[in-house]
TrEMBL record:
Species this protein is from: Cudoniella acicularis
UniProt-recorded name of the protein: aspartate--tRNA ligase
Positions with biased composition (Low complexity): 15-54
Primary location recorded for the protein, binned into one broad class: cytoplasm
Domain Aminoacyl-transfer RNA synthetases class-II family profile as annotated: residue spans: 349-659
Pfam family, one: LPG_synthase_C
Organismal lineage: Eukaryota, Fungi, Dikarya, Ascomycota, Pezizomycotina
Positions with biased composition (Basic and acidic residues): 74-98
Protein's GO biological process: aspartyl-tRNA aminoacylation
SUPFAM superfamilies: Class II aaRS and biotin synthetases (SSF55681), Nucleic acid-binding proteins (SSF50249)
Any Gene Ontology CC annotation: aminoacyl-tRNA synthetase multienzyme complex
């Protein structure tokens, strides 16, 4: 990301005090006290000497003039920044007061006004009014014009035009219509001759305009003809004059994206905008004369806050140019419930429902009956390698790989023709766009009279009936989907081409096709996916069809029950059907002779004793039969050309589903749990220290100090500083610390809660920021891998790693391996340095405190220039969770201090402070750190690791949603900064102490960092001394 170059180039320029022509811009992020002092002296000389001392003084005067100009500009910018901050604070206070007044008006205002927008209670079953509420799909818009309609819908999007006018788009499934909510004066305030109708108050408009998108509401409105065509809704020529809006329920978590966003975002445009924004930071910040202003990336602000000049000019003011692009699939699938509300998803599953309906209806006309087979089986259906084993009351059982065995047993039971639509499980570790571990199977089986082509003909007819039925019934849905997933209509012939497997292989050979290993395809081996796609293209070229049958598959690639070809036992009476070059059906004739079936089972390595129930049907006599299995999701995604089978599954299951959960360790303070907070418990009556919990204690939020000891890592201990603000989740008590700097809310570290609660707390925190101050831009620093993954996958934030938690094993002694470190420790001992520990159950003596405080002051006086830090040096807070160690000299003077802060059971302790005071003998701090680690390992045997906190990594690594070029540019900029500020010096010292790196991340939304974000981060970290 090249945007880092400019701000950090300015840092470099500021540090170059020997270059009088360097551009020390006032918006640089760092500086040194030494250079400031030098500047003040030069300014004084310039003023006193004027221009009378010749050329040298003239140059000095020019330099002075520049410095004076820069000081004036800097002061002016600082004043404007303070004015802006004051204005924001006043606006926020005014908005808060207005909201309080509106809430009071809703509770105490005139009932005739407040009843129009009062939210419904959670439990609405107190009475049943049998009110008729309409569905948009049932409305005849032309005939219903002028009628007052009652309906339940979601707010698709909303836009405030003025204090008295709001446009709302309501959505029921795939149908959207624009509504107009406009306030009127009360009747007693209307002047003579003034046109005014209704009792809608401004308070109602203000309340409704704050409803977030996706809120469910019950609306009463009058249908009327729209003044202009509404392009941004599916109903173009009509709109609703809203009279009442009642909220049905609240959104308790931040929705990662709205349906409106998903249906209108053009990702390509956004990426271009993002590139432009970042590249612009390489050059001067002044706008280019011919460059249009960059649009906001916050789509909720676009839809809610932008007010056009002529508010009432057009009823199409909600219109935007619809971009027929969807959010990235990864984001959609990770937020599946919201994604399923979108028009393309709704259309996909309507078509999928139609496929099942057409499958059923056609087979019903052919004499089939529907069955429902068990999904727990005593043995593998086809191959033990791809079966899920489960514990069935202490005995092994398996999830059915298909209903194949049960279907055949039904044929043996004289059902003649059966079909089923049900779940199928395959334990195949295939992470491809066309495989899942659980899918819905469309299966049929039928008895044969003479030839297995009897079944093949019925299957062929079923597919053709299905294709035609979908195009006849679901043309509108297909049209919606085609905007997002362009595809051509499936082509099929009246007489479907039927190729033998050998003929298909020969077509591939004739075309010059070879497999990846360079070998031509074999007629006795299965075709690869690439070969199937190529064969589909050859068939399309030769026969002009997307749909064909491949017959006579080799026995080596078919299950044990496949009937051999009577003319060549190397092949079988089995077939696959293909569409768009990929297999959608596997079928064939089954073996019905019990003895031959047992023989084939043994050849395939299956024990007949494990499938006794299955074999009984054939031992007692079964007719010849054939059947097939179809994957519903694969059929859907290929027919609609979706590109990924997961988009055709409600909630896809693949090998990456259900990730392993880390083991849960016992909390240090059980009464400060967030999964079972104290106000929800009756079993916790005292703290871990034995103190009795009162009822008032149970109602209080868990102390932050105890949350850190339960769930915290090194970054969380910084939240105890006064400059941090801490968001508390109301229902769990979980915490998230952050700092507001300029227009940025910078979250530091992971939330203090159980990891399973991260999604809930992160979403609630982001929603809190949005609700409390829409102007704040969120950033996240020192995020662990779980938080980084959630922000990157759920919200498509960009992530990068340039810092790491530096951890050590307190039981290791690095001095045994490092001769330099060992020599320093010995030197400290020779100088009479003695390491001391203050017992954890004793308070720090005041005399010791005074000496340490004096040492810290002397240490701070020796610090020069810009310091980068997360926390302030306050060693005496939260002493309950801290361990203190100090090094004293022969004369009882204190030369160093180490403070360990207790973290979660997993993270152990943090070396919160390790300070070596001036005049301390060499090796003092190294000796004291090793002593403290050894002591904590002995006093707390459960401690597995200690962290020294965060340190700079030697190189920067890209995380999620970052292009290669951006990572390369960012890495180059980071290396320059690292060399200049020697960021890894501390890390190199810690490495000697036996530390290893555990990367943590910086995360930010698209377009949400830029130079301003970098300045905010650096400004928050800087400390001038």
């Amino acid at each position: 990301m090249s945007f880092l170059k400019k701000p950090f180039r300015k840092i470099k320029d500021l540090s170059s005090s020997n270059n009088p022509s360097s551009n020390n811009s006032s918006d640089s992020v760092t500086g040194t006290s030494a250079s400031t002092t030098s500047t003040n002296v030069a300014t004084g000389n310039g003023i006193s000497n004027g221009t009378s001392n010749g050329k040298a003084l003239s140059l000095n005067g020019n330099s002075t003039s520049k410095r004076q100009s820069q000081e004036i500009i800097s002061a002016d910018r600082q004043r404007r920044s303070m004015d802006k901050a004051r204005t924001k604070a006043e606006n926020k206070k005014r908005q808060s007061m207005a909201r309080i007044k509106d809430e009071k008006f809703l509770e105490e205002g005139p009932p005739d006004l407040t009843k129009l927008y009062r939210p419904y209670s959670m439990n609405m079953s107190k009475r049943w009014n049998h009110e008729h509420r309409v569905l948009f799909k049932d409305i005849d818009w032309e005939k219903s014009e002028g009628n007052i309609l009652s309906f339940r819908a979601r707010i698709h999007t909303l836009r405030r035009m003025s204090a008295k006018l709001v446009f709302i788009v309501f959505r029921q499934q795939t149908i959207t219509i624009q509504g107009v909510l406009q306030s009127f004066k009360p009747h007693d305030q209307v002047k003579n001759g003034e046109s005014n109708v209704g009792t809608i108050s401004e308070q109602m408009v203000r309340s409704v305009e704050h409803y977030p998108s996706e809120t469910i509401v019950v609306v009463y409105a009058k249908l009327r003809k729209s003044q202009k065509r509404v392009k941004n809704a599916t109903v173009h020529d009509y709109e609703l004059e809203v009279y009442e809006v009642h909220k049905v329920g609240d959104l308790t978590e931040n929705v990662p994206f709205t349906v409106y966003d998903a249906e209108n975002i053009n990702r390509d445009k956004e990426d271009v905008d993002d590139e432009d924004d970042e590249n612009s930071l390489l050059s001067d910040e002044s706008p280019k004369p011919n460059r249009p202003p960059r649009q906001s990336q916050d789509f909720s602000r676009i839809s809610l806050d932008k007010v056009i000049g002529d508010k009432l000019a057009s009823r199409s003011s909600m219109d935007v140019s619809r971009q027929h692009r969807s959010l990235p699939q990864r984001v959609r699938l990770n937020n599946r419930i919201v994604d399923l509300r979108t028009a393309p998803s709704q259309a996909i599953f309507r078509i999928q429902s139609g496929i099942c309906s057409l499958f059923r209806s056609y087979l019903d006309t052919q004499g089939f009956i529907e069955i429902h087979t068990p999904k727990l089986q005593g043995g593998a259906t086809e191959s033990g390698a791809t079966v899920f084993e489960v514990n069935y009351f202490g005995r092994p059982a398996f999830l059915a790989q298909s209903p194949q065995l049960a279907k055949q047993m039904c044929i043996a039971a004289d059902f003649e023709r059966v079909y089923e639509i049900g779940a199928v499980f395959r334990a195949e570790d295939s992470n491809t766009p066309r495989h899942m571990t659980e899918y819905t199977g469309l299966d049929l089986e039928m008895a044969l009279e003479e030839h297995y082509y009897e079944a093949l003909n019925i299957i062929d007819g079923m597919f053709k009936n299905l294709w035609q039925g979908i195009y006849d019934r679901y043309s509108k849905e297909i049209d919606v989907i085609s905007h997002y997933y362009p595809h051509e209509k499936v082509k099929w012939l009246d007489v479907t081409p039927r190729l033998s497997f050998s003929e298909g292989v020969q077509m591939l050979k004739d075309s010059g096709w070879v497999e990846e290993n360079g070998k031509p395809p074999s007629e006795l081996e299965d075709l690869s996916t690439r070969a199937e796609i190529r064969l589909g293209a050859l068939v399309k070229e030769k026969y002009d069809t997307d749909y064909y049958i491949l017959d006579k598959f080799p026995a080596s690639v078919r299950p044990f029950y496949a009937m051999p070809d009577p003319t060549d036992e190397r092949f079988t009476n089995s077939f696959d059907i293909f569409m768009r070059g990929q297999e959608i059906l596997t079928g064939g004739q089954r073996i019905h002779d019990a003895k031959f079936l047992e023989k084939r089972m043994k050849q395939k390595g299956i024990k007949p004793d494990s499938m006794t129930e299955y074999l009984e049907g054939f031992r007692w006599g079964a007719p010849p039969h054939a059947g097939c299995g179809i994957g519903l999701e694969r059929l859907t995604y290929l027919f609609l050309n979706l590109g990924n089978i997961r988009l055709a599954s409600l909630f896809a299951r693949d090998p990456k589903s259900f990730p392993a959960k880390p083991p849960t360790l016992a909390l240090r303070h059980d009464e400060a749990s967030t999964t079972n907070p104290p106000w929800e418990r009756d079993d916790v009556e005292e703290t871990t220290t034995g103190e009795r919990l009162s009822e008032d204690d149970k109602k209080q939020l868990q102390p932050l100090e105890k949350l850190i000891a339960n769930y915290g890592d090194a970054a969380n201990t910084s939240w105890l500083d006064k400059r941090y603000q801490v968001y508390r989740h109301p229902s769990t008590g979980a915490a998230q610390g952050y700092i507001i700097y300029n227009n940025y809310a910078i979250a530091i570290g992971d939330p203090l809660c159980a990891k399973s609660q991260y999604p809930q707390i992160i979403s609630a925190y982001l929603q809190f920021l949005k609700d409390s101050n829409k102007d704040l831009k969120p950033l996240w620093m020192i995020a662990g891998k779980e938080v980084e993954e959630y922000l990157g996958e759920k919200f498509l934030w960009r992530t990068l790693a340039c810092i790491s938690e530096e951890r050590a094993n307190p039981r290791d002694n690095p001095a045994l391996k490092d001769s330099v470190l060992a020599r320093k420790v010995r030197h400290a001992e020779k100088e009479g340095i003695k390491n001391n520990e203050i017992p954890s159950n004793e308070a720090v003596p005041e005399e010791i405190k005074a000496k340490i405080d004096e040492g810290i002051q002397n240490w701070q006086k020796g610090r020069k220039g810009t310091q980068v830090h997360l926390t302030q040096i306050r060693p005496w807070i939260d002493q309950e969770h801290r361990r203190y160690y100090y090094a004293s000299g022969p004369n009882s003077s204190i030369h160093a201090i180490v403070v360990l802060h207790q973290l979660s059971p997993k993270n152990g302790y943090q070396v919160k402070f390790s300070l070596e005071f001036p005049s301390a003998p060499s090796g003092t701090i190294e000796s004291l750190i090793l002593f403290s680690l050894k002591s904590i390992a002995a006093s707390d045997p459960e401690t597995k690791q200690v962290t020294f906190g965060t340190g700079a990594m030697s190189t920067l690594e890209g995380g999620r949603n970052l292009g290669k070029h951006k990572v390369k540019a960012l890495r180059k900029a980071y290396e320059t900064i690292n060399r200049q500020f020697r960021l890894t010096n501390k890390s190199e010292f810690r490495e000697k102490m036996g530390c290893w790196d555990e990367p943590v991340f910086v995360c930010y939304p698209r377009g949400g960092l830029g130079a301003g974000g970098i300045r905010a981060i650096m400004g928050f970290l800087e400390e001038d001394s």
